[in-house]
Design a protein that fits this description.
The protein is mainly β. It is built from one helix and 21 strands. The N terminus is likely disordered.
């Protein structure tokens, strides 16, 4: 029987065990059950140079809204021994993770990498200017996520914290409760409750209205301007920017996990295959 690299728990503060998929602005990454990693797409800064990685249990990619001056990205891998590796654009030290130990979760944003330690504290490297790396005071964290200019964490009591730019209310999550997951997009933050409902920050009213009908959600992924969710039946729903067909996921079945970027969406099926929707100008498909 083929190993399925993600399982779920329903209680507050719980999260999927590992993120096997990651989507950057122009590349896609897949941590395979044997611990190796595949990456496809543009390799402008070496973000797809993962061929020698082994014992990887989780991956992250530095997603960013896609414009001509924001294409550079980086890829991060979490090893089974709690150490971390990274490749790609490193202008702000976002790949300087070689000394990290005791890490249980990772996230990558534009110009930064965030790591969750086994004791529930958080470490970050990269550009400090916007405050998205100001995570040193966080405690009791169980999941981390990165948007373009803000970082978000799920806490073990089902609440969430955020740091960084808050110009559109993307950090306004202090009142959220009973969460099981969080996801950070370009200008918004999404939260998933234990009851399978999705919460969104005030500045994303268009997304919030569209997700009111969603129920029994098990996984969420935030693209730059679109939001994707997996339901308990293994079907996938998406709302938001669909300019490249990144929301064309209604036909997907048996999906256990999703990842989203600026212009494309990835889905991992229970049989270990990967689906892709959206712009494919940089060969983002596995196959």
């Amino acid at each position: 029987m083929r190993e399925t690299p993600v399982t779920w728990s329903a209680g507050p503060g719980r999260r999927p065990r590992r993120r096997a998929l990651a989507a950057g602005p122009r590349h896609s990454v897949w941590a395979q059950p044997d611990g190796t990693v595949r990456a496809v797409g543009e390799n402008r800064s070496g973000e797809c140079d993962v061929q020698k990685w082994t014992h990887i249990v989780e991956v992250a990619a530095g997603n960013v809204h896609s414009f001509s001056n924001t294409g550079r990205s980086h890829t991060v891998g979490l090893r089974s021994d709690g150490t971390v590796c990274a490749t790609g654009w490193n202008a702000h030290g976002q790949c300087d993770v070689g000394s990290w130990e005791g890490i249980t979760g990772i996230a990558a944003g534009w110009r930064r990498t965030v790591g969750l330690r086994h004791d529930g504290t958080v470490v970050a490297v990269g550009r400090p200017d916007e405050g998205a790396c100001d995570v040193g005071a966080w405690r009791g964290v169980t999941q981390v996520s990165c948007g373009d200019w803000h970082s978000v964490a799920l806490c073990e009591d089902g609440t969430a914290v955020a740091a960084g730019v808050d110009s559109r209310g993307q950090c306004g999550i202090s009142g959220w409760k009973e969460l099981t997951a969080v996801a950070a997009g370009c200008w918004y933050t999404a939260g998933l409750t234990g009851g399978g409902r999705v919460m969104l920050t005030a500045g994303s009213s268009d997304l919030r209205e569209a997700t009111r009908a969603w129920s029994d959600v098990l996984d969420i992924a935030a693209g730059s301007h679109h939001l994707v969710a997996v339901t308990a039946t293994g079907r996938v729903v998406a709302v938001g920017d669909d300019s490249h067909g990144q929301c064309d996921v209604a036909s997907w079945t048996d999906v256990v996990q999703v990842a989203a970027a600026a212009h494309h969406t990835l889905g991992l099926r229970a049989d270990g295959t990967v689906l892709c929707a959206g712009g494919d100008g940089y060969r983002r498909r596995f196959g």
